[in-house]
Request: fold
Amino acid sequence: MKRKKFLLLRFLSVVLACGAVSAAPKPNVILIFADDLGYGDLGCYGAEKIRTPHLDRMAAEGVRFTDFYVAAEVCTPSRAALLTGRYPLRSGMCGNVERVLFPNSKGGLPPGEITIAEALRGSGYATMHIGKWHLGIHEGSRPLDQGFEHSFGLPYSNDMDAKPGLPKGSTSSATPPADGWNVPLMRDGKIIEQPADQTTLTKRYTEEAVKFIGDHKTQPFFLYLAHTFPHVPLFASADFKGKSKAGIYGDTVEELDWSVGQILEALRKENLQENTLVVFTSDNGPWLIMGEQGGSAGPLRDGKGSTWDGGMRVPCLAWMPGRIKPSVSSQLVQAMDWFPTALSMAGVKLPDGVALDGINLSPHLLESLTLPERPYFFYRGPQLFACRIGPWKAHFVTQGGYGSQPKKPHEPPLLYHLGDDPAESKDVAAQHPEVLKKIQQAVQTHQSQMVPGVKQLKSNE
Ligand code: MG
Reply:
């Protein structure tokens, strides 16, 4: 009898739990993307001179990933991959010579590509892009063409559109001329300020984000907040300039940290925190040739522009209190995973006939399950340079980020154990031929199935 009663109670609790799940509103999704922030630039990743209390708290309340990769070593392809869930080669959003889009580039994210915004909007989500776009300025590629109902920010990097006669070295100067760049600030496709006052961008992006959250308390939303900083030239507002112990670079990161604090606070205030997945990460590693303006990859080798880990392994935090348990995850996770993860959490079907390169992280995030082992491929432009499986990473070609080390093919490939050797300094290929063979087979399979898209990054000239 007792057993029956127990079973009945258990049945009722399952029914109630299921009812609660089905009645739960669709979760909101916020992706916050810093620009050129390195693996070692946050307190929770070991930074000592930059104070990031809000991001450290977000890490303590959520998942902090130690082995998270973006899909490219530079800006445009990394963003294309984040929003589409596909290696940039598939959309044509990568290049050998022109490695990112420039104001005179003729291409952009092809209209046929499906972004997270497009996929979620079809399911009743409000969608907004704030910050840097850098996925094209022509019809078909702009934010409003790619699933965003609203957009506020810069069409490309803040160092493009430099005014003629800008003194050499201004980009890396601690006090760049505020009017040195002519980059426009746009709202919903229209220029509202030119040149954009870069000293107030982080503040204004944050205000827009907080307003968007407040305006959509009762409708599910997707917010893509792609910060302009800490990409050079660096500008912080008066409240943050000169306040960090890491120069203007640290000032801009501390202002980003403040911004994240404001956004999480807005979610708490609206009681949306348990129903909003917030992800914070960076588009690529630190721009090391900028010296003190360029951030730090911590213990990792090289930085932006390179397929060494410092170029593509970046901080990543995922936060959803009450749903995601606080933890540090060393699982291999990557930017293209957020597309299927966001769709899964929203209950949206994956698009038919689209080759996706990410996996749904929900079982890992919500149930702490281990992810399946899978290869990760490191591209520089359209060429595959390296591959990681488990702790092992093989390099077939290496090249420094920006001229620091010439392009060099490796036969046999270099092999590193990233667990023992995160700085990729001791080649152990000779001792582990079986590992190399496994990685080479994975590369062969991947390449045999890869269908490259039409190249988008060529300039008009
Ligand atoms: Mg970048």
Q: What stands out?
A: The pocket of magnesium ion is lined by residues 35-36, 75, 231, 283-284 (CB under 6 Å).
